[in-house]
Specification:
Elements: H1 16-23, E1 42-43, E2 49-53, H2 58-63, H3 70-81, E3 89-93, E4 100-103, E5 106-109, H4 114-131, E6 135-139, H5 141-148, H6 154-157, E7 161-162, E8 169-173, H7 176-180, H8 185-206
Helix pairs in contact: 3-8
Length: about 210
Amino acid sequence: MPERSAAEFLPRRRTLAALREAAAGCRGCDLYRRGTHTVFGEGRPDARVMLVGEQPGHEEDRAGRPFIGPAGRLLDRALAAAAIARDDVYVTNVVKHFKWTPQGRRRFHKKPSAREIGACLPWLDKEIEVIKPEVLVCLGATAAQTLLGRHFRVSVQHGEVHRTRFAEHTVATIHPSSILRQPTSEDRRREMEGLTADLKVVAGLLR
């Protein structure tokens, strides 16, 4: 019996509104059983820039919206510093449900498996197809290796500009959540500067 995927749940109408509505009922993998909401992408359908992360976090899962938690607030700061308006970008994730493991009363992020990523990928494919971004930005290793190949290394290749089947320009950088995990304020400052520098590369491509 073939494995299930989001492809079974894609609507005939390929608009963001139709995709978002259909994704709310997706049962393409088992992550929907523990997620509070399907967290679909958000932003303008004519956005020139599309930002793709790994998966929603705790706050995003509760609210049903992407990048509204602590990592999202850091992303807002980095976008502003790079002179890219958050209103001018579309934000989404490779995986649309929060995968977590319990630790006491708290829920901690758990990396999605290759099977879960593959099952959810049809939603991202259609988001890219509808939006047709000029610049696609992969935030973190999961997004980068999903879209740029499993051997891609964000730590080495961040800020590089690649031409892909997804967009004329594709750039990878760190996920803002990695800044939150840094042990010292100096480390966090350095990582934030790196994220901002990579987003300035994106801003340059839009000129």
